[in-house]
Amino acid sequence: MKKKILIIRSISMQQLDNLMSKLYTEYPEDDLYILTHSHAIKRCEKYKNITEIIDYERINNFSIFHIPKNINEHDFDIIIIPVTNISGVGFFNVFLMSLRIKSKKLFLYNLQSKKKEIKKREIIFNFFKSILFSTISIFVTIILSPFIISHLLISKIITK
Amino acid sequence: MVIVSIVILSYNRKEDIRESLEKLYSYNLNNTEIIVVDNGSSDGSAEMIESEYPSVRLLKLKENIGVSGYNKGFAISKGKYILILDDDSFPSENSVKRMIEEFEKDKTIGIIAFDVRNYNSYNQVSKQDENKEQEKKTDKKRYLMGFNGAGAGIRKQLIDKIGGYPDEFFLYWNEMDLSIRVLNEGYKILWVNDIISYHKYSPKNRDSQRGPFYYTRNLYWIILKYFPLFKGIGKILKLLYYSVYFGLEQKTVIYLKASFNAIFNSKIAFKNRKKIKKEIIENIRIEYRLPFIIYR
């Protein structure tokens, strides 16, 4: 039976070109869907055999606070999240958003197109870790802000 | 008469630049000059070009000066249009012709952003897509976006007026910096889907700290150069927050190092500060998280 596979375009088109060749081989008979920002829809049309290109409808980063209308009319077998690095760090917003899309499995494909399954419990664990990091980062930013702002203002005045 | 000057920056990629030049010469392009700026390569790239491609205008620099090298090439170019390429990229066969057509059709186009595709897809998607007449459709949306320096056309007169890439950047975000100035002059950046270049996208060196350092520092400088003061401070604090957050997540201090470097050397950015139209600052698409997602 054909699988429904959603590729979230979280990487550059060049990297996606590479990955698509791999995915065509890995899922030759399955239905591939691409979720992408509006500005990249035209660029995704060059890929052959894509069942549907879904518009993210926003220009901002992928976020848990927004998923496209009607995306959950689909029940995906697999969600693919490609990342621009080796480990997937920095893509937590995409993982988090994927929790709101109906799917059975979630795979990360890294820069070298290596595949790793991501369990939903890992994302939830990382969610709590991100809250801790966010709290520390806000605190550090608040502490450093007065020094940085005053330095920049002085620097700007001197440069004038 | 030279219509297009192809300017390529080369640094230690002898085989790649050879392949790019081979492709360009195989197209038999008329009214075109090829300028290669060699950024002090130590692998014999410059010598190879001299001996195998004597008609190339070669500028041999003594050291690697980063993207500033392009400016040296722009300065000596004679064409009405400049085609910017990397040493590991080349356009598809009809793209130079199509680029000229688009520039001639609309005088308000400042930059034509090529559809930069992965080199590995060269044999898979290119031929059919390039040759079909019905595929020659353009996406005329006004993109307030940057472009990819592995394939882009720009009017020479525009470069003469507003300058080329920012000398102070060395690497990364140079395209965005130039894009902001081009848009500010009232020109458009157009992406056209049948104007294609192929780029050898490399997944190597992701552990090098050079990428995250320059990506982070130069983004601060773009904000300091072009954003209104208070809006800019907000963005600077956002970047600082990201530097701490992603530093913790990736167990690295490189983002903070780059942040402090950008801030303590902010005079360099302020010296090049320029007033930019409000609608450009509001609509330009800058991916603020980009510096933090390429490492490790």
Short description:
Chain A is an alpha/beta fold. Chain A has 4 helices and 6 strands, in the order E-H-E-H-E-E-H-E-E-H. At the A-B interface, helix 1 and helix 4 of A face strand 6, helix 5, helix 9 and helix 11 of B.
Q: Can you describe this structure?
A:
The complex is a heterodimer of chains A (160) and B (296). By secondary structure, chain A is an alpha/beta fold. In chain A, 41% of the residues lie in helices and 21% in strands. Chain A has helices spanning 13-26, 41-44, 92-98, 120-159, and strands at 4-8, 31-36, 50-55, 76-82, 103-109, 115-117. In chain A, strands 3-2-1-4-5-6 form a six-stranded mixed β-sheet, with helices on one face. In chain A, β5 and β6 form a beta hairpin. In chain A, 29% of the residues are buried. Chain B is globular and about 50 Å long. The longest helix of chain B is centred in the last third of the chain and has 22 residues, at 229-250. In chain B, strands 3-2-1-4-7-6-8-5 form an eight-stranded mixed β-sheet, with helices on both faces. Chain B has helices spanning 14-26, 45-52, 68-76, 95-105, 122-131, 156-162, 174-184, 210-226, 229-250, 254-264, 266-271, 278-283; strands spanning 4-10, 32-38, 57-60, 81-86, 89-91, 109-118, 152-155, 188-199. In chain B, α1 (14-26) runs parallel beside α2, α8 runs antiparallel to α9 (229-250) and α8 runs parallel beside α10. Classes of the chains: A alpha/beta (160), B alpha/beta (296). At the A-B interface, α1 and α4 of A face β6, α5, α9 and α11 of B.
